[in-house]
Amino acid sequence: MHTENQFHETELTEIALKALEKQTRIRGRVLQAEPLTGGPHRPDLVLELRLNETCYKLTGEIKANVDRRPILAQVKNQLAHYDKPGIFITHYLTPTMTDHCRDIDLQFIDAAGNTYINQPGMYVFVKGQKKVPRNKIGAPKYRPGTTTALKITFALLCKRDLRNATYRTLAKDAAVALGAVGPTYEGLAQRGFITNPKDHKRLILLEPRKMIDDWVANYPFKLRRTLDVRRFRVEDRDWWHDAELPPNAKWGGEVAADRLTNYLKPATQTIYLHDDPKNKLLGRLVGQYRLMKDPDGPIEVLRAFWNFTPDNTPPTVVPPLLVYADLMGTLQPRNIEVANLIHEKFLANADY
After folding, report:
1. Is the domain 4-136 a CATH 1.20.1250 member?
2. Residue 64 or residue 108, greater confidence
3. Tens of pLDDT along 2-55?
């Protein structure tokens, strides 16, 4: 059965291909949807682009809403996993975002006719076309970027037992209102990410890797900024080596990546704190390690947003999904390299 989101993506692709042909005379068609690749990564589609006698096959990803550069970096990283050249399809890119795609050599087409294609014998760059009204493109009723949806999705990805827990248990462990669980489940089902709890006895993740990509794209802008981020510095830059955090504090970011891979020398330190509404735990850390407030400091402390013990996670670090998201959000090549290692080791082949 086709989900509402699959119809939306199909319609968006068709409109973008028609706009491409109108602007450039390049004809495009979908050769295959969600092809098997022999590896853990599975693209949304394979496209054929043809101009006169020149023909190219490209691996495609569909991202309906792209309005920030870090999302472009994530898309480029996704496309790098495939053996064919990559291209992504979106609703609309502004001239500034279009220029950035060209700067980082990220091929795309949008529903307005803006495009960047750079293949041997085929170079196309179009920007400034007007945005297509959304009422001309079918759209899912549910938007995934709310903080509540992100918290619930995180819980489902990181704790297998929560997928078939009661709504009350999930709400408690995901730190959301009880009334938010049902609508979020319905929205995830509409997008084809999970089975609809109304139709199945057990909740099954149908597209866990797409759920991960979607979560990582939204986390830095929608959820992370609500976590009371505070920054510090310290005279001893190696303070974290021997630091023993209390049970309610977990390493994230670069230190967690080092603990998970032994492949990164941390230049920054990220700590997530549980159950610290009056900042008593933060005060202990500040005093014990002589942390000094600094808005540009390399140490950041955030409020943890989950209330469960995650699967397959060492007790001193946050879940690998969160480590991956924080590293990807930095846009630093050294961190993205390690993020990919974490993705391969803990996320890509996990038993969802």
Report:
1. no
2. 108
3. 344 443 677 788 889 999 999 999 998 888 776 655 566 678 888 889 888 788
Report the side by side order of strands in the sheet with 108-110.
27-33, 45-51, 54-62, 86-90, 108-110, 115-119, 122-126
Model confidence over 320-331: pLDDT tens digits?
999 999 999 888
CA–CA dist 174, 224 (Å, integer): 15
The CATH code for residues 147-224 is 1.10.10
Instruction: Give the integer Cα–Cα distance in Å for 241 and 237.
Output: 9
Instruction: Find residue 86's DSSP bridge partners.
Output: 59
Domain boundaries, given as residue ranges, for the chain: 4-136, 147-224, 227-347
User: Which residue do the tokens 């974290």 mark?
Assistant: 240
Question: 29-33, 158-162, 217-221 — which is least confidently predicted?
Answer: 29-33
- Average the pLDDT over each of 5-19, 151-165, 220-234 and give the range with the smallest value: 5-19
- Provide, for the chain, the percentages of residues in helix, strand and coil under a 3-state DSSP scheme, each rounded to the nearest 5: 40, 20, 40
Q: Decide: 71 and 86 in contact? Cβ < 8 Å.
A: no
User: Cα-Cα-Cα-Cα dihedral of 80, 86, 87, 93, to 10°?
Assistant: 30
What tokens does 307 get?
């209330």
pTM of the model: 0.69
Cα(314)–Cα(310) distance, integer angstroms = 9
**What is the rounded distance in angstroms from the CA atom of residue 352 to the CA atom of residue 310?**
13
